[in-house]
Amino acid sequence: MCQVEFELACAALKQLKGPVSDQEKLLVYSFYKQATEGDCDIPAPPVTEVKAKAKWEAWNQNKGMSKMDAMRIYISKVEELKKKEEG
């Protein structure tokens, strides 16, 4: 598993045409953030900012996970979405 595979998965995600559920988007986002930035180190947004709060919570759930593990899971999730789209 390496940076190149991660970057290819990032590019592949942008090419998906089929619908991706909000839950799937949050999950992929959370692993992307963990892989690229590590543990969430920003304060939680206010509850009134629903989308920002959901993204923060998703990323924060990965606290303690290594960047490499997050990359592996991200790549795996993107592969799942690609297979789902192919039918």
From TrEMBL:
<dbReference type="InterPro" id="IPR000582">
    <property type="entry name" value="Acyl-CoA-binding_protein"/>
</dbReference>
<dbReference type="GO" id="GO:0005739">
    <property type="term" value="C:mitochondrion"/>
</dbReference>
<dbReference type="InterPro" id="IPR035984">
    <property type="entry name" value="Acyl-CoA-binding_sf"/>
</dbReference>
<dbReference type="InterPro" id="IPR022408">
    <property type="entry name" value="Acyl-CoA-binding_prot_CS"/>
</dbReference>
<keyword id="KW-0813">Transport</keyword>
<comment type="function">
    <text>May be involved in the energy metabolism of the mature sperm.</text>
</comment>
<keyword id="KW-0963">Cytoplasm</keyword>
<comment type="similarity">
    <text>Belongs to the ACBP family.</text>
</comment>
<protein>
    <recommendedName>
        <fullName>Diazepam-binding inhibitor-like 5</fullName>
    </recommendedName>
</protein>
<dbReference type="GO" id="GO:0000062">
    <property type="term" value="F:fatty-acyl-CoA binding"/>
</dbReference>
<dbReference type="GO" id="GO:0006631">
    <property type="term" value="P:fatty acid metabolic process"/>
</dbReference>
<dbReference type="Pfam" id="PF00887">
    <property type="entry name" value="ACBP"/>
</dbReference>
<dbReference type="InterPro" id="IPR014352">
    <property type="entry name" value="FERM/acyl-CoA-bd_prot_sf"/>
</dbReference>
<feature type="domain" description="ACB">
    <location>
        <begin position="2"/>
        <end position="87"/>
    </location>
</feature>
<keyword id="KW-0446">Lipid-binding</keyword>
